[in-house]
Amino acid sequence: MSAPRRNPIQSMTGYGRGGARSPVGHVTVELRSTNHRYLEIEPRLSNGLSSLQGPLTELIRAQVRRGRVEATVSTHADHTARAVRFDAALLQRYYDALVSVKGRFGLKGPLTLEHLLALPQAISVAEEPISTEQWWRLIREAAQRAVTDLVRARQREGAKLVADLRRQMQAMRAHVAALKRRLPKAQAEQRRQLRERLRDLLGREAGGSVAQLEQAASLVRDVDVHEELVRLESHLGYMAHTLAGQPLVGKRLDFIAQELMRETNTTGAKVNDPEAAQHVVELKACIEKIREQVQNLE
After folding, report:
1. Where are the domains of the chain?
2. Class of domain 14-78+130-154 as given by CATH
3. What is the pLDDT of residues 101-142, one digit of tens each?
4. How far apart (Å, rounded) are the C-alpha atoms in residues 112 and 162?
5. pLDDT (tens digit per residue) in 66-98
6. β-bridge mates for residue 82, sequence order
7. Nearest to 49, CA basis, from 84, 74, 81
8. H helices within the chain, ranges in order?
9. Which residues of the chain have pLDDT under 50?
């Protein structure tokens, strides 16, 4: 059984446009999406079509799951139907009045339809506006094209963001590896410095107060950052796994980036070594770039 197809990760920024035409008119739908914590859709339709905001919102919601989307709908009527209307009640009154006039004045000759239609307001021609249903058929077609265009744009931008995230992650792995290589020397130097400090703290004698011994023990515990480096590698692995998974990764990646920064800050606080400190600074720079980029992901 084949694995289910995964949709590409999307950015939350993008633009899409679609149009539709029929004998009655044509419609253009433009979609602009920007970053947002949740999904917010703002449909903008011309007067008289506000009842279509709900269906349009649901159409967009079916394919866009996060971001602020502005949907602008432009409608243009190319042809307006005309209806010919007869006022039957008025014609009846005209007819009765004409028959009465003929009898009163003894007029001869037939009373025809032509006589009736020549009278004012007996017949009228009215323009019939395009119905909401007709507009919706055009708007739906144009909106579907616009959404498809928008999603493709968001996917293209998402692919660029993911590629940059992978570069930052690769750089972080290199800095973590460098920290591991540097760690034995850094620890040896820190232990040397600690021994000097303990001599000053405890004196030449082996004894010391309880408070002094507890302080010494805490200093020794702070030397090792192996656990922090292991967790950094674990978080990077989870980030890579997340990028290879389903869409809607923005919030999850943001949380992972926070954890990466937490472990990096702890590492920097523990290791008092210039070379190691430089790698910590570079790690933080990579994480800041990651946090900035994941804010754009759906």
Report:
1. 14-78+130-154, 81-128, 157-294
2. alpha beta
3. 777 777 787 877 777 777 787 777 666 678 889 999 999 999
4. 82
5. 999 999 999 988 766 555 677 788 778 877 887
6. 127
7. 74
8. 53-61, 88-105, 113-117, 132-202, 210-221, 226-243, 250-270, 274-294
9. 1-5
